[in-house]
Amino acid sequence: MTLEKFLTKAVTSWMNEEGPYSEIVLSSRIRLARNSKHHSFPTVFTEKEAADVSQKVKDSMQKAGESLELLEMKELQELQKRVLVEKHLISPNLAEDSASSAVWLSDEEDISIMVNEEDHLRIQCLYPGLQLKEGLRKANELDDAIEEHFDYAFDEQLGYLTTCPTNVGTGLRASVMMHLPGLMMTNQMNRIIPAIGQFGLVARGIYGEGSEALGNIFQISNQTTLGKSEEDIVEDLLRVVHQIIAQEKAAREALVQTSGVQLEDRVLRSYGVLRYSRIIESIEAAKCLSDVRLGIDLGYIKDVPRTILNELMILTQPGFLQQYAGGFLRPFERDLRRASLIRERLEMDDSQLKGGTDL
């Protein structure tokens, strides 16, 4: 796969597939933080050490026989890196550190291994729906393959040593991306967010720490990595996620029963905004996309596949809009292009569905 493919393909196969509980859980992510025991950690290492780590990772990947493609940050333009951030393939931190930073990506983009980010290695696996155990299994396979050729910083008592103390232990960050409009509309998220903190979990926005929950999308992830096994961390997260799923379903049912007409009106108005607007800002687009996705799940909208919303969530981000435009766009120009792109995508999908019906 070429760099251009990574940049122009808005939706990866894992995002375009249905998974368990995919009407609420968009994706599951497993990330393992690892460091070399022979080098200073990224916050204090020299450029020479950074380059050495990058080369050792490259050698390890080749010996491990993993068919991943290497993208070096120093070879990418700022806009290209922003697109990779919007697709959740690299972190904002990696995009800022370009000297010897890199990412290894699979063709399906379900595997992303970041080099010289906050830690020397960040092994990430992404799956559609609620598939944390599957993600952990694959991440552990990659971890074991790399470790055969790369000496990790490990302490018998503390576990894997990481740059940030909050990752010491397993080095595991497990997270699920959830669409929770029912809980937001019924004002229950203000109660749920502090409650899950008691279980060592945290709720963040769509792009993780410091980001907003645009479009009613939240990332639920573990905060505790020390004193528990990887399997226990995943099991604890799964238990809470299943409870949130049940509460979200109950909230949706309550909304249908008490405000069915108003809810359907809200959904169809948002659909109309997406279909006919000439100018639309990112916040309004995210809100309308959330409403339409809910409308699809509830059966108010029958001719639009749920996965199209996954695609439009990415396509309407600033980086992607400018990538398609071929250069920098001012905010107003982005709003124009965002509205145009959404209209074209919905019209294209509608045309395909009608064509399929005629056959």
- What is the approximate shape? globular
Strand content bin:
5-15%
The largest sheet is: 8 strands, antiparallel
Structural class call reads alpha+beta
Record keyword descriptors for this entry.
12 helices; alpha+beta; two-stranded antiparallel ribbon; globular; 8-stranded antiparallel β-sheet; 15% strand; 359 residues; 10 strands
List the helices and strands and how they pair.
Elements: H1 3-8, E1 25-34, H2 47-64, E2 69-72, H3 78-86, H4 92-96, E3 102-105, E4 111-115, E5 121-128, H5 132-147, E6 154-155, E7 159-160, E8 172-179, H6 181-185, H7 189-197, E9 201-204, E10 217-222, H8 230-276, H9 282-298, H10 307-315, H11 318-325, H12 331-358
Antiparallel strand pairs: 1-5, 1-8, 2-3, 3-4, 4-5, 6-7, 8-10, 9-10
Helix pairs in contact: 3-11, 8-9
Keywords: Allosteric enzyme, ATP-binding, Kinase, Nucleotide-binding, Transferase
Organism: Jeotgalibacillus campisalis
Binding site for ATP: 27-31, 88, 122, 173-177, 204-209
Protein described:
It contains 12 helices and 10 strands. The chain is an alpha+beta fold and 359 residues long. Among the domains are: 148 residues, Glutamine synthetase/guanido kinase, catalytic domain (Creatine Kinase, Chain A, domain 2, 2-Layer Sandwich), CATH 3.30.590; 99 residues, no CATH class. An 8-stranded antiparallel sheet has the order 2-3-4-5-1-8-10-9, covered by helices on one side. It has a two-stranded antiparallel ribbon with strand order 6-7. The relative contact order is 0.13. The C terminus is likely disordered.
